[in-house]
Amino acid sequence: MQPRIPRATFAKCLSFPERNGEENMAHLRFAILTSGGDASGMNAALRGVVREAHAQGHVVMGVQRGFCGLIQGALNPLGPRDVSNILQHGGTFLRTSRCPEFATEEGRRKAVDTLRAHAVDVLIVVGGNGSLRGAMALAGLWGGQVLGLPGTIDNDLYGTDETIGYDTAVTTALDAIDKIRDTADSHERFFLVEVMGRDAGFIALQVALGGGAEEVLVPEETPDFPAMVARLRKGRQNGKTSSIVIVAEGAYPGGAQAVATELHKLGGDDYRVTVLGHIQRGGAPTARERLLATRLGAHAVRAAIAGETGKMVGLAGNRLTLVPLADAVNKKKSLDPELLALARRLSQ
User: Fold this and answer.
1) Could you tell me if 271 and 308 lie in one domain?
2) How far is it between the farthest Cα atoms of the chain?
3) Rounded-to-integer distance, Cα 196 and Cα 251, Å
4) Which pLDDT tens digit goes with each residue over 138-162?
5) Are residues 49 and 141 in contact, defined by beta-carbon separation less than 8 angstroms?
6) Domain range for residue 226?
7) Domain total in the chain
8) 154 tagged catalytic
């Protein structure tokens, strides 16, 4: 087992200057995993971590299948060539999983045993709320550094303007909605389109604005079905021949199909339902996604070298930030009320 490197060696200011001289002789051993739901851009983040770490003279181990792989000891070395030609692909080449065993103390202790057996100094976890909670749990049991990267299409983590996967999910959903609009116009129908967003309406709001939807339902608000029916009918009276309603999957129990049933009861109109589902997770990441994920991954490495731990790397404006993991998963990230109001004003 390799000896751990004293953390004082890497205590630096947050400008993260390049290391030189004798410092380059010290090596950190990184481990990185992707966990929970996949998100386009995860591969770009992995590439950013591996290549930045190697450029700075450190070692990276890739953990297969998330926390399950960590429990099972499924770690393999990753070099620059191992991450060639992956940033343009969706999903995660390390694979991911949901891991019930990790929810137990025994499972988490097995994961800690793996980290110690492989002499890991820094663990980087890429995932959403549940994954970063898992990272926090490990930090409480293990003496190494733990950092998180926000990897979720829902964009619901506090402390970052965007999460890895969000822009691609919005772009994918918007492309589908544009196609549905063609059919809605041709048949002069009402369409309900369900997008992902169990607890957060960020995708729904963005695609409603970008797709010119007539209505949007988000988990952050209780739906007012009578008022919605009245607005949709008024739109018909004002010359609208078709309407699209965007429904976040968590906006109403039963999703868009249940919403269609409620609207039909009130107005008698026929509502066609399309559930976009998992197509929003996959596919080639957008250019914006690749840049975001690459920057976040590289910054996580530099933060670790500077001695940071218990933080999530985020983006505020165009500035890379570090947010306590506890804040990232426990504090509420709110929808922009001005955007929600704008979507409704422009839908008339």
Assistant:
1) no
2) 76
3) 10
4) 999 999 999 999 999 999 999 999 9
5) no
6) 166-280
7) 2
8) yes
